Q: What sequence folds into this?
């Protein structure tokens, strides 16, 4: 009963907290650029405003265009639901592992790209093509991170990985560092941040994710935006869960520990959001074809992480 | 008995069909008549699989075949499973052919060979001696070749047929030699005797020949170039059978020989198979990504999936060699699961492609578009197939890919350094292949079914007839079913694998509702749970959005940042879609070149863009081989016009050479 309750709470938490994390990143970034910036709660107001507006759909679009926002939102929400944040003791924990998580994000991407192609515009196709290009390198890198962690911990389940890390089996290992580096690079790419993509761009030719959702409006756009925010939060939570899980509540812990877990998670998300904003202000956006080097590097780091495991075992 | 009657029904159908070759409607009826025997074999396979474990295989011996060697036929669990894999798509193809075959350019050249093709494939599965096996194998090759060249108005089909026939002859020869080697050691062509003497037959050379023989039929790199030529040249339902099923029959041959008849192999074979599989998967998907022809694209994607299955088979062989039967069983279950999935998905996609081609007359995806509005059923089914083959949950493709990755992730427990360093590299290759497959099918589905029509033919397309629709809806539903209830399938597959590896996967690890193959904590997946939660979340989302938000939807001209362009050519085409990947990987792998012909400033001539893609493997290996054969043939040609004196001299020297060999050779 208790895991079910926490599961529902956690499900609502990830969807409710996502705009806040995005708002925080935007605000910190604005301050670093010398602007005052909107409040952290501005994304909620934006989503609400979009929700109230009528949805305008292109004549040439098919039924796929209508259902895609729902499919994308639910797929990302589902992925966020199976990832532990405040406790590892949830009913959904055994339903999916990290491979399934990667695949669920793949579902969201697949349908977003199709929707980009659906209206039959040049910008939509451009965004879809670039997004799939980036994903075709980012997704393997993420699978290889999973691989190296599973070689270390003999599991692909995030909850059991947390257990493994908390049990103190992981010291300062080179492999873990490399895997974390790879995951950070993938996280930047997959959540559409600088230097891969710019969520705040107003120049169509540099858009990737924004170009795909260009034809969306009203409630459909609200869902797409919310899904993008949730995906960013998901990647922050993933880094926290795999590499910095300290503070998370575990099966058998009493209820107060959940509050500790919640506070720890919020603090870590806030810290990572600030780091993200600082990093984005510090670095310039990359040319499209340089992304292959960037993500190829991530893939190689993840591969090296696995290989160093054997080397360190042999030494 | 039942099997025999089904087989005879196929034979009679094939023989009777030419009688009605003048009437197109007869071709449809012949396809319909293929349904009962296919369904019968399907039911038989299912019944044998459902029988309690330990049920002995059914064996029948017929007075057919070589003198002194009766024809042995046998139905065990592996054959029964593959009967399922063959006859399920066969039923669909028959149903599809009912509406499709009468409209082919030459229905009379298709109808007789489809039942014979099915006869050949089913024969391979049931054969229990080398002679019957090879007979059925060659029968399958020949009848499929006849289907490839069925359209005699198409010169490409003739060329494809010639390539296919040469490769089929090569493969058949390899298998013949392999069986001869195994029989020379074990002393028999009878599979039962080979099975009784494990480790007897043939050694390294025999295994190598088996790999070449079955690999060439399955489309293993570097023996694959015939496949994307031949499969698309056949009529679409025959393409579905060739791509979805015949490659699986080839893999059946590999599994039967490597895991049943020759069960003592070193880990090196598993390692080699794994590397070959990884190369096959990457090559196949990368070529698929660059194709413009819808059916060629699907054929290359078959190459990719065969690669994935080969990796799983290699893992199974390596685990077995290291005496880890549970993990070997897991890898083999993953391979068989993907065999079943891919046979369904690829049939579905080829049938969809056939519906598109017959509705528009176009195979070039750059001239299609907007078909989802015009062909809703075909489009929805193709979308299901595209999602399944891109391994998206909750469909079936994801389950088998998940199982392959799970067994791959446990391969580092093998202690040899080559395995330890090879497995991560194979992992990278498979992960890249999986990601590229998703790109490939977004591109294919997006260009064919979404956007605005790029040609008049695409704009005028109409939905396919009912029998074609039905033949697509059924496999699409099965894709979902096999994805949501993986535990049922993996349980059945565990019983197929058990007699081969002599290990039974504990049901606790395959338990309901989680698919958790290694250990309870080591990673689990439950499609049903995900689906139910997803549905719950979707209902919540819809309710919330519609309660708090606006419910109105307006239709308007496309916005496109305020500067819409009415020309359909302004959309992203398939070539523009794959341009980033082509730029990054195309030059080294495909010798891809973009030639831009830009007129001088002031000149009003149009700028031209040309894209050249070549297959380095074809240029480097096959083109050279063809030149060599031609040169040799020219030389040998001279032997045809010698004088009698020369011929007598040649006979004399041959005799002398033969006598010398007999004299020098040590006595047996």
A:
């Amino acid at each position: 009963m208790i895991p079910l309750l926490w599961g529902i709470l956690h499900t609502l938490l990830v969807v409710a907290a996502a705009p806040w994390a995005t708002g925080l990143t935007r605000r910190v970034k604005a301050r670093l650029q010398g602007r005052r910036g909107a409040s952290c709660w501005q994304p909620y107001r934006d989503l609400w405003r979009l929700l109230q507006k009528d949805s305008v759909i292109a004549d040439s679009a098919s039924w796929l265009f209508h259902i895609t926002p729902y499919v994308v939102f639910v797929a990302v929400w589902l992925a966020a639901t199976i990832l532990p944040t405040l406790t590892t003791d949830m009913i959904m924990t055994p339903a999916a592992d990290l491979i399934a998580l990667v695949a669920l994000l793949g579902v969201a991407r697949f349908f977003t790209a199709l929707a980009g192609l659906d209206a039959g515009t040049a910008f939509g196709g451009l965004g879809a093509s670039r997004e799939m290009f980036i994903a075709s390198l980012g997704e393997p890198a993420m699978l290889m991170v999973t691989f190296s962690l599973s070689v270390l911990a003999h599991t692909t389940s995030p909850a059991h990985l947390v257990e493994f890390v908390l049990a103190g089996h992981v010291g300062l290992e080179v492999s873990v560092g490399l895997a974390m580096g790879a995951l950070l690079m993938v996280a930047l790419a997959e959540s559409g941040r600088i230097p891969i993509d710019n969520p705040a761009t107003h120049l169509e030719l540099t858009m990737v994710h924004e170009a795909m959702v260009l034809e969306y409006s009203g409630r459909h756009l609200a869902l797409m935006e919310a899904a993008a925010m949730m995906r960013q939060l998901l990647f922050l939570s993933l880094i926290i869960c795999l590499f910095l899980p300290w503070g998370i509540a575990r099966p058998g812990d009493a209820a107060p520990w959940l509050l500790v877990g919640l506070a720890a998670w919020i603090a870590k998300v806030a810290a990572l959001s600030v780091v993200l904003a600082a990093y984005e202000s510090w670095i310039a956006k990359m040319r499209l074809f340089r992304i292959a080097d960037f993500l190829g590097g991530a893939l190689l780091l993840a591969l090296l992480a696995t290989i160093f495991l054997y080397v360190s075992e042999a030494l | 008995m039942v099997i025999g009657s089904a087989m005879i029904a196929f034979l009679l159908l094939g023989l009777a069909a030419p009688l009605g070759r003048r009437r197109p409607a007869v071709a449809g009826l012949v396809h319909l008549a293929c349904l009962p025997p296919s369904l019968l074999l399907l039911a038989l396979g299912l019944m044998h699989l459902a029988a309690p474990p330990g049920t002995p295989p059914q064996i029948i011996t017929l007075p057919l075949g070589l003198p002194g060697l009766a024809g042995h036929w046998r139905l065990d669990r592996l054959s029964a499973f593959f009967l399922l894999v063959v006859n399920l798509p066969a039923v669909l193809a028959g149903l599809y052919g009912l509406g499709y075959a009468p409209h082919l350019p030459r229905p009379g050249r298709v109808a007789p060979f489809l039942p014979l093709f099915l006869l050949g494939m089913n024969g391979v599965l049931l054969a229990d001696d080398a002679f019957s096996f090879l007979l059925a194998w060659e029968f399958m090759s020949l009848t499929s070749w006849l289907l490839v060249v069925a359209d005699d108005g198409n010169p490409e089909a003739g060329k494809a047929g010639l390539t296919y026939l040469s490769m089929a002859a090569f493969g058949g020869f390899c298998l013949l030699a392999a069986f001869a080697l195994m029989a020379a050691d074990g002393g028999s062509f009878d599979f039962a005797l080979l099975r009784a003497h494990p480790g007897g037959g043939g050694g390294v050379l025999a295994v190598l020949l088996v790999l070449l023989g079955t690999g060439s039929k399955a489309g293993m790199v570097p023996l694959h170039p015939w496949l994307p030529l031949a499969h698309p040249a056949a009529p679409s339902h025959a393409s579905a059978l060739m791509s979805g099923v015949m490659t699986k029959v080839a893999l059946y041959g590999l599994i039967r020989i490597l895991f049943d008849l020759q069960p003592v192999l070193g880990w090196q074979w598993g390692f080699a198979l794994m590397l070959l599989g990884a190369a096959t998967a990457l090559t196949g998907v990368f070529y698929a990504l660059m194709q413009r022809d819808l059916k060629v694209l699907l054929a290359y994607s078959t190459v990719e999936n065969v690669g994935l299955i080969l990796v799983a088979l290699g893992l199974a062989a390596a685990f077995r060699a290291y005496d880890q039967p549970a993990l070997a069983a897991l890898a083999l279950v993953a391979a068989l699961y993907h065999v079943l999935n891919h046979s369904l998905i690829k049939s579905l996609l080829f049938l969809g492609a056939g519906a598109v081609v017959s509705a528009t007359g176009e195979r070039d995806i750059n001239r299609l578009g907007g078909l989802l509005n015009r062909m809703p059923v075909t489009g929805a089914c193709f979308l299901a197939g595209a999602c399944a083959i891109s391994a998206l949950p909750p469909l079936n493709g994801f389950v088998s890919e998940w199982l392959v990755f799970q067994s791959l992730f446990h391969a580092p427990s093998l202690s040899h350094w080559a395995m330890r360093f090879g497995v991560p590299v194979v992992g990278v290759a498979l992960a890249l292949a999986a990601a590229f497959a998703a790109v490939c099918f977004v591109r294919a589905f997006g260009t064919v079914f979404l956007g605005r029509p790029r040609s008049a033919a695409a704009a005028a397309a109409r939905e396919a007839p009912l029998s074609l629709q039905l033949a697509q809806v059924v496999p699409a539903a099965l894709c979902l079913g096999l994805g949501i209830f993986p535990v049922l399938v993996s349980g059945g597959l565990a019983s197929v694998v058990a007699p081969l590896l002599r290990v039974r996967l504990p049901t606790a690890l395959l338990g309901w509702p989680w698919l958790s193959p290694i250990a309870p904590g080591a990673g689990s997946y439950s499609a049903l749970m995900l689906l139910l939660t997803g549905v719950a979340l979707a209902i919540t989302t819809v309710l919330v959005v519609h309660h708090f938000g606006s419910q109105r939807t307006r239709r308007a001209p496309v916005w496109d940042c305020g500067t819409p362009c009415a020309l359909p050519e302004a959309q992203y085409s398939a070539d523009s879609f794959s341009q980033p990947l082509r730029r990054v990987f195309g030059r080294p792998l495909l010798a891809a070149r973009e030639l831009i012909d830009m007129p001088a400033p002031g000149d009003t001539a149009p700028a031209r863009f040309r894209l050249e893609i070549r297959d380095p493997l074809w240029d480097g290996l096959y083109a050279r081989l063809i030149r060599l054969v031609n040169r040799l043939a020219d030389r040998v040609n001279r032997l045809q016009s010698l004088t009698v004196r020369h011929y007598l001299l040649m006979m004399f020297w041959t005799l002398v050479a033969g006598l010398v060999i007999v004299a020098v050779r040590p006595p047996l």
